[in-house]
C-alpha cells in the first residue's frame, strides 16, 4: 500500500556499507521513469553516481554533508530548462523533478532502502562533477542505500492544522 511507504519514509543520513542490488536500483529508476510530467515532456535524465571517487567529492558539493558519500548510490535528478512556466507561475522542470523525487524516495522505502532529499548543493560544482550539459539543471540529489539508523518520531502538524475546505 502506498500509504505504508509514505508513513515509513524518513530522511536517512546514515547508510550501511552494503551495495544496492541491481534489480532494486532498476526498480527505483523504473519508478522515476513512470513519473508524470507536464505535457508528458519527460524533461529528465537521471545520473546514477556509483563511482567511489565521484561519491567522495559529494560532501564538498553538498555543503559538508558527509553522509551523502556513505550511500552506495546517489541519483542526480536533472531536468532540461527548455520547459516553460505554467499558467500558475511554476516552472515545469522544477515540478516535474520534484514528482520524480517523490517516486524515487517511495520506491526506495518499498524495497527496504532509504534516501534523503538533498537540495543543499552547489549547482555549478555538481554540474561540473557530472559533466552536465548547459540545457540541464540538477533539481535534487538522492543518496540511496540501506539505512544504518532507525526512524525517529516525526513531529507532524495535525490534519486540522493543515487542511481547510473551500476557502483559506
Itemize the secondary structure elements and their pairings.
Elements: H1 2-8, H2 22-33, E1 44-49, H3 52-55, H4 58-61, H5 67-70, E2 73-80, H6 92-110, E3 114-115, H7 123-130, E4 136-145, H8 159-162
Antiparallel strand pairs: 1-2, 2-4, 3-4
Under CATH, the topology can be stated as: NADH Oxidase
Distance between the termini: 31 Å
Please, how many domains?
1
Q: What strand order characterises the main sheet?
A: 1-2-4-3
How does the major sheet shape up? 4 strands, antiparallel
DSSP summary: helix tally: 8
- Helicity range: 25-40%
CATH class assignment: Alpha Beta
> Taking all residues together, what is the mean pLDDT?
95
Structure summary:
With 168 residues, this protein is of the alpha+beta class.
Structure description:
The protein has 168 residues and is of the alpha+beta class. It has a single domain, classed as NADH Oxidase. The chain is 37% helix and 15% strand. The chain contains 8 helices and 4 strands; from the N terminus they run H-H-E-H-H-H-E-H-E-H-E-H. The mean pLDDT is 95.
What tags apply to this protein structure?
single chain, 168 residues, alpha+beta, NADH Oxidase, four-stranded antiparallel sheet, 8 helices, 4 strands
Amino acid at each position: 500500500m502506498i500509504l505504508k511507504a509514505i508513513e515509513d519514509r524518513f530522511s536517512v543520513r546514515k547508510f550501511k556499507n552494503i551495495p544496492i542490488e541491481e534489480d532494486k536500483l532498476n526498480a527505483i529508476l523504473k519508478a522515476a521513469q513512470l513519473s508524470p510530467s507536464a505535457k508528458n515532456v519527460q524533461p529528465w535524465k537521471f545520473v546514477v553516481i556509483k563511482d567511489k571517487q565521484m561519491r567522495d567529492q559529494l560532501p564538498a558539493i553538498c555543503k559538508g554533508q558527509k553522509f551523502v558519500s556513505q550511500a552506495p548510490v546517489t541519483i542526480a535528478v536533472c531536468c532540461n530548462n527548455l520547459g516553460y512556466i505554467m499558467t500558475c507561475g511554476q516552472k515545469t522542470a522544477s515540478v516535474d523533478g520534484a514528482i520524480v523525487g517523490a517516486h524515487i524516495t517511495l520506491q526506495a522505502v518499498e524495497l527496504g532502502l532509504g534516501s534523503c532529499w538533498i537540495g543543499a548543493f552547489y549547482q555549478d560544482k555538481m554540474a561540473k562533477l557530472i559533466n552536465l550539459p548547459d540545457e540541464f539543471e540538477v533539481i535534487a540529489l538522492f543518496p540511496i542505500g540501506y539505512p544504518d539508523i532507525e526512524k525517529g518520531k516525526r513531529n507532524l502538524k495535525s490534519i486540522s492544522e493543515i487542511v481547510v475546505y473551500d476557502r483559506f
